[in-house]
Design brief:
Elements: H1 5-21, H2 23-35, H3 46-70, H4 93-98
Length: 102
């Protein structure tokens, strides 16, 4: 999205005022303009990126291993399979009726 003509004129006027009032600011801005646009404000080496990716992969595998190793094996015991009512968190009537001796 580009600036309108009015916005460009206002920015040019602000820049002119700053250049007249603050020569130190002018030198700093001119030095930045000579360097050209920079893609990143900070430089990250390839080695740092690779290290971060390795840590992420290692933590992912560690988390998966913990989940697999701590997962319950086989079917749960019979006392843990009773149906609970979603409202009262008590055994449902079908479970209670099935326990009545005949």
């Amino acid at each position: 999205m580009s600036l309108s003509d009015r916005e460009r004129r206002l920015l040019a006027e602000i820049e002119r005022n700053l250049r007249c009032r603050d020569p130190r600011f002018t030198r700093r801005i001119d030095a930045l303009n000579r360097q050209g646009p920079q893609r990143f404000a900070c430089h990250v080496s390839t080695r740092q990126v690779v290290c971060v990716l390795l840590v992420v992969v290692a933590l992912t595998f560690l988390s998966a291993a913990i989940l697999v190793l701590t997962a319950p094996q086989g079917r749960p015991p019979a006392h843990q399979t009773k149906a609970l009512s979603p409202v009262t968190a008590r055994p449902t009537m079908s479970v209670l009726i099935s326990r009545v001796p005949s």
